[in-house]
């Protein structure tokens, strides 16, 4: 299973945007259309696979972060309970 940080995905996207002179995803799409970007079916499928993997990895990272935050909250609650006991 591929796991990466959200910041890694954002960094890679930023590098791509810098290379093509775009500020965001929308500008990148506009630049592609203006430059008549044409991909083969195989290239399009590969890009979709990569994007899916990146989205899934980002979702997994967010979920792990939520779980960690929840666990940290439980630990803090447990610490408070133990300090409140006589």
Largest β sheet strand count, sense and barrel closure: none
Q: Percentage of helical residues?
A: over 70%
Computed structural class: mainly alpha
Number of domains: 1
Number of strands: 0
Order of helices and strands: HHH
Shape: elongated
- Separation of the first and last Cα atoms: 47 Å
Summed over residues and divided by their number, the pLDDT gives a mean of 81
Please compute the radius of gyration using only Cα atoms: 21 Å
Q: Into which percentage range does the β-strand content fall?
A: under 5%
Uncertain spans, ≥5 residues at pLDDT below 50?
A: none
Task: Output the number of helix runs.
Answer: 3
Report on this model:
The chain has 86 residues and is mainly alpha-helical. It has one domain. Helices cover 80% and strands 0% of the residues. The protein contains 3 helices and no strands. The longest helix has 44 residues, at 41-84. It starts with 5 loop residues before the first helix and ends with a helix. 0% of the residues are buried. The mean pLDDT is 81.
Short description:
Helix content is 80%, strand content 0%.
Mind sketching the topology for me?
Blueprint: H1 6-20, H2 25-34, H3 41-84
What would the keywords be for this entry?
mainly alpha, 86 residues, 80% helix, elongated, 3 helices
């Amino acid at each position: 299973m591929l796991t990466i940080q959200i910041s890694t995905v954002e960094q890679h996207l930023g590098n791509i945007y810098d290379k093509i002179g775009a500020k965001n995803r929308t500008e990148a799409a506009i630049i592609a259309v203006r430059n008549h970007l044409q991909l083969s079916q195989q290239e399009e499928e590969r890009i979709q696979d990569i994007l899916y993997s990146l989205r899934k990895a980002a979702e997994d990272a967010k979920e792990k972060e939520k779980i960690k935050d929840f666990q940290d909250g439980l630990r803090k609650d447990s610490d408070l309970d133990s300090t409140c006991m006589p």
